[in-house]
């Protein structure tokens, strides 16, 4: 697979000749330190948010998580996303070391 940077993102050519153009003109970024997922038969829901419990939580305490993004995917897209996330984590750990619990 070959890659080249363009004005609006990245272009990749797959082994079968298909060209993917990743246009990031309208991309939005947000930070999450909490993520979870749930699913129905038709869709997966990835929920992202933040918690502010930096000092820890006493036993029996409460953690409030402010959800700020929900990504909805069909099962095939969710499976592809899971595979690329696993590969990305493996590459990260190879470069920077194992990620703790």
TrEMBL record:
InterPro entries documented for this protein: DUF3467 (IPR021857)
Q: Which domain of life is it from?
A: Bacteria
Q: What is this protein called?
A: DUF3467 domain-containing protein
UniProt organism field: Pontivivens marinum
Q: Organism classification, top ranks? A: Bacteria, Pseudomonadati, Pseudomonadota, Alphaproteobacteria, Rhodobacterales
